[in-house]
Fold:
Amino acid sequence: DGGITQSPKYLFRKEGQNVTLSCEQNLNHDAMYWYRQDPGQGLRLIYYSQIVNDFQKGDIAEGYSVSREKKESFPLTVTSAQKNPTAFYLCASSGQVDTQYFGPGTRLTVL
Amino acid sequence: GENVEQHPSTLSVQEGDSAVIKCTYSDSASNYFPWYKQELGKRPQLIIDIRSNVGEKKDQRIAVTLNKTAKHFSLHITETQPEDSAVYFCAASIEAGNTPLVFGKGTRLSVIA
Structure:
């Protein structure tokens, strides 16, 4: 999991502002994922991508957007439509027959 | 879709005792069941996983059992140590690899010295 990086570590968002969370991996993994973690809620899937230029909505995609222009990168944008974005955001990646490995996370706070 | 239930939500044990965390899943097509450990403020780390063609798997003090008929799987930690204190998550998916995991809500384990 050392091959997955997320930035920034902490992020603050003002009302009505879009913010983008970065996720990069050098593990040559095809699939990448974004999860949101709230206290007592476990990890919930926002979006995932199994191949470049393709992605699928997860359980809580509303108010979020993603792109997958490169195999190594899967940025997540938290839009102003997401009314309660304060959470810990985790990116993960996996190979063809491998489990998911997580990045260190970004903690987003709404001011 | 898949739904994973995890129990208990909190668990306290004395150092040296065993801890058991149980999960049930709803989708009989699920075949891959990993367990993650997450320390405060850190990323989840895989500690053990099991595939549906195996009923039990061990790695030192950690073991996982799977009952596909009943659709439940369990994590067993023996000889617990204070460094085992963390939140543990079970998960399920159709296969390991390019498919999303569905997670349980987690169990906060506290090992009391």
Remarks:
- Chain B touches chain A through 23 residues (CB under 8 Å).
- Chain B has a mean pLDDT of 95.
